[in-house]
# Entry
Amino acid sequence: MDSAFDVVIVGTGLAGLTAALRLADHRRILLVDKQVLGAGASDRAQGGIAAAVDPNDSIEAHVQDTLIAGAGLCDENATRFIIGHGAEAVHWLIEQGVAFTGDSANPLGFHLTREGGHSCRRIFHAADSTGHAIQQTLGRKVRTHRNITLLEQHMAVDLIVQAGRCVGLYVQSVQSGPVSAIAARQVVLANGGAGKVYLYTTNPDCATGDGVAMAWRAGCRIANMEFIQFHPTCLYHPYAKSFLISEAVRGEGGVLKLPPSAGADAGLRFMPEHDARAELAPRDIVARSIDFEMKRRGLDYVHLDVSHLDAGFLLEHFPTISARCREFGIDITREPIPVVPAAHYTCGGIVTDTAGHTDLPGLYAAGEVACTGLHGANRLASNSLLECVVLGRAVAGDILERSLPGIVAVPSWDDSRVRDSDEDVVIAHNWDELRRCMWNYVGIVRTTKWLERARRRIELLREEINEYYASFHVTRDLLELRNLVDVAELIVASALARHESRGLHYSLDWPQTLAKAMPTVISPRGMQRPASNSRLP
# Structure
């Protein structure tokens, strides 16, 4: 592999693949993924991509739905930019060969579904595995493009900054080999969110906040990290790890009911008591309502029932969900699905504009890792894939419009202190302790006391992790744990700074919503924290 590229893109989700394909005819690209192409969160997206293209819909209606779901905190300019490019994004995916589900009765030729928070049907989907269909299509193009080098099973360790500019990054094989330095004219972070900071999540194992943590350590501002979206309906089963039940299931008529363990209220449909939109309320409201009912009644789960819908329709539109549930003995056409909320999406991230610029020249960010302001205090369903395509293309367009900076010689990794650790069990213990701490104290409902308790425990964990990072040979587990601690610290600090309840952040100590909505922006220069023990010379 060459040690210098025009553009290095970290992450092979939808934002990364979009940017790579847009750039590859004009630049030499390196795509870095710590797993394999297609193993990230984009591949798991069931619902689809939202775009106002139906004659009965409008960009303005989509904008207003997004602003309402975002609880007053969306950046309106960014929202209008991204949604305004929705039709272009969908058409580009179709041109690439993505086969969205068709509907001969629709003048557009496609079946559009509806999800919570949307005022009409505007979700393009490929049955209930939209992300997989998109990733497979774009992935095939990436693997065969002559100007794209794909580096799988390699983890980005840290960005390299010289003279106030990002000039490359360090990467390591996940088999814990030597750390390599790669020079780049520009670097794009597109490596997703941070759901694994919580004990229960719909996210894949790779969602450890690597991009947010790397950019934070490099001096970039981070915004709105307190707004962690908990998906209301994750399949509840001891062997069903991280499998979500799509928002579209409720969009097509699924209802939430109390299970038999609720006693006399078993079978009661409870969402109308919490919100007039019932199951079609935005995710924060549905998740908080489920959490309330579970805690009030001592339930382990609630039921999502679609058995009243046509069986043929369910099997046609939700084949993946139906098949997965059957593996665990659940026939969705005849019986309800046990579900619980789980951490799902990071609404905050690296502060960027609508061209993906970060605070650090030479560094871009796109997708879940970034905070454009589109999602505000609560992401509207299926706006995430839309943002990935629009911002992936915008980042690429901005790079192509700029003159190429020179390649800078980058310093080698400092391995003078490296030795193998015989206490890997401590890393595993700290990993588990951090995720349980975040789940228990920084979850759907919060208090200042719980947040302070989490903050103190995170500080202690950071001390141990920094000691390991400074002394031992780095491994994927250690690097991810280091990143998760950074992310956890940012989430807690952001939550403590917000003295109100808004969107996904609900505090029992601050239940009111302030009249003026303000983002939470944290700068490394304004936050006191221990040294990072950087290995840069």
